[in-house]
Every structure is written in C-alpha cells, then in structure tokens.
Write a structure and sequence with these properties.
There is one protein chain. About 30% of the residues lie in helices and about 30% in strands. It is of the alpha+beta class. It starts with 7 loop residues before the first helix and ends with a helix. It has a single domain, classed as Aspartate Aminotransferase, domain 1 (Alpha-Beta Complex), CATH 3.90.1150.30.
C-alpha cells in the first residue's frame, strides 16, 4: 500500500509540533517513508496523509479514539491495526500538539 502524501497545512502543523518539542529531545525523522517524531530511538507520532498518528497508552488512547473520525492505525489497510496507535484526522489538528506530548511521555516511560 502506498503512503498517502500529506497536504501543506498538515505538514506545516506537524513541523511546528516537532519544532516546539525539540527542546525535550524530540526530532523529526522518517519511518517507512512516513514523517515521524522520535525521542531517542522511539517513534511516538507520525504524519499519515493529512492526519497524525500517535502511540498512546491509557487513558489517552481511549480519549483519542473518542474523537470523531479517529481510529486505530492500520497502515497496510488489511485489517492489521497497530493497537497502541491512533490516527487523528486534520479536523482535530488543534489537539495534535497535546496528543503528541502524551505520546512522547508514554514512550519515554
């Protein structure tokens, strides 16, 4: 399955979040062609088309899934969702920075 290309607004928001978190050991990288945010060697967020993905534990995982249009991340599209990962659509872009911080803390624990 081909990786969806991000639109300019989503990419700009993703880059802003990465820059705002840089002082906490976060950097922008790529995973399987997807722009992602890492801390150390751990990926905790990524840009997938015009949506962002976040690796979240409880209770943030359940809260993110309650957002309209959010779902488990299934990059293959073949029903093999990555259970800790949630895709949050651009309609909730104002929540992305908060979710990214939760995800960063989750992988750092």
């Amino acid at each position: 399955m081909e990786m969806p290309k991000p639109d300019e607004r989503a990419m700009a928001r993703f880059e802003d979040i990465g820059e705002s978190m840089a002082g906490r050991g976060v950097f922008v990288s790529r995973m399987f062609g997807m722009p992602c945010l890492k801390t150390g060697t751990r990926v905790f967020a990524g840009l997938y088309g015009s949506a962002m993905t976040f690796k979240l534990g409880p209770p943030g995982h359940g809260q993110a899934l309650k957002l309209k249009g959010a779902e488990l991340f299934d990059p293959s599209g073949m029903g093999r969702a990555m259970k800790e990962w949630v895709v949050v659509p651009a309609a909730h872009a104002k929540r992305w920075a908060e979710l990214a911080e939760r995800a960063r803390k989750y992988v750092a624990d």
